[in-house]
Amino acid sequence: MWLINTDTLTLKEVTGPFAHDYAILSHTWGSDEITFQDIRSSERHEIKKKKGFSKVAKTCEIAHQQGLEYAWIDSCCIDKSSSAELSEAINSMFAWYQHSKVCFAFLSDLQPCDSKDVASKISFPYTEETFGRCHWFTRGWTLQELIAPDNIEFYNCEWKQFSRKTDCLNILSNITGISYAVLQDSSSLRHTPVAVKMSWAATRDTTRVEDRAYSLLGIFDINMPMIYGEGDKAFRRLQEEIARETNDLSLFAWRACPHTEGKSQIFRGLFATSPSEFSSCATITKSVARHDTQQEFSLTNKGVRIQTKLFKHADNAYIMSLGLTLATGIPVCISLTRTTDGFVRNEPWSLEYERAVTNADTTRELFTIHVRKDVSPQEDSALRKRMHRSFRITFELPASLKLEMVVPDPKYLWDSFHSTFLSNDSSKSSAARLKIIIRGTDGNFSEEFPLVLILGWTRTLQKPFAVLYGATKSADTARGAVRDVLPTDFPDLIGDDVDWGHGRQDIFENAVSTVFSTPRFQAMEVQFINAKMMVLHRGVRKSSAYVARFHAKLESRCDDADVITYHVCLSGLLSRLEGREAVSNAYTHVLATNSSLEE
């Protein structure tokens, strides 16, 4: 690294910012800056012709007047032909500004104040609006140049000093969104949420896209190699490095632009694409809620591994609290969707799911999940297809009936948290099966009701189906009967030994067509009768029976992204019949129905 002598304008190589006292320049680059090679050149009269020379000369002049022998100017004190030196300079730039004796902030587009205006403003000569319009406040690199130094002197386009940082902290805070505490003391950065720091850079630009990330290294106290040409990957690498150094979940509190049809992704990874996506995070704070404690997370080759609590939300989503609150007091949460390759973020434009969290059981167990780091537009399209034609199962059971067991097949497509079968390939016919046991819990009555729910979609007919049968293998007896037992010749659409891939789709289509063309393969209601004969005193007998009825209802829904999902509601009812005639009639009805189905 190099310092420029304020008297001779020659360069001196140094090992770091602690070697000498120096002034430092903060400015916006123009088209004709003085470079390292220019300063080293013997043609001094030639470099004086460049527009950028006046900044170098004026910086050195003012520094010399303040008794400083050296100055540091980023345009000419870094040998950018050396990738190693450039990388070292960028990684240490925050330190260079932080340890300077004075920083000169030169605002090249800030015109001198009117003399009357100056007289009317004793402490600060410009309006906040005029000062805030300066190009200096829009550049990525000048963010750390504002925060790092304790002593900043502000100069207008004529190099007239008009204020110091310490004299206009409130104005600077209003313009930039940076807290007063951080502007006053940069050590407060360590106590500031990651998302808040990102928000300060949300509206700032850099000439090269990689510099949007590199200019933030000092803000986050991160070191990483420079790879110009990597584009947006630089910001992804920055987030990965931050994730290795902190468990601050606000790193994931970004918002994508609101979804408009065909113009944004529904599914994203856990990392943002740029600082701009943190623009709404300036006022978030850490939550004091009991269930919002920060959890450990780590990077793996499967994504970001997080141990956290998850809360249910509509449309097969999981809600994860980030342990933060918005200025309105609403918890900051993100919505996740489970895929066969791990979790992804959905609805990335939203952070507000207050109802899902405030109505949740805060004692829910911790889950260990893997969330993908990013999702490409092509993968987003594929994931939409996975959600397309998925089946969600809901149960509506009274207190007298209890869901005891659910066995899904195929298991790898089953999301147990939301009782949903994902689609393996929405363009192909598919089928899935749930074996279900529901138990009666009415008084002393405790009988199992085994059911089988078979679901699917056929490409040929472009239709979904859902059929429900009793799964009992016992025949009707004097004590029990079941209406609509799964027929023994029902097509085996999901058997473990049946592979419908690799060119066997036609066979599968024929099997599914049988379901649609055969009425006895289309049951959606099952009835169980369990009869009892009670002997009362003096030999009096009393007949009674429990009747359990189960019904499956299939609905199709389409969201704004033309993703169709199927919802199957399995409802149940348990009732009690008294008297021999009532029991006999119910039992006879079941037997008659079964006989007609067999015919």
Automatic annotation (TrEMBL):
Domain annotation Heterokaryon incompatibility: ranges: 22-112
Superkingdom of origin organism: Eukaryota
UniProt-listed Pfam families: DUF8212, HET
Source organism of this protein record: Colletotrichum asianum
Name this polypeptide is given: Het domain-containing protein
Matching InterPro entries: DUF8212, HET
Every DUF8212 domain range: 233-284
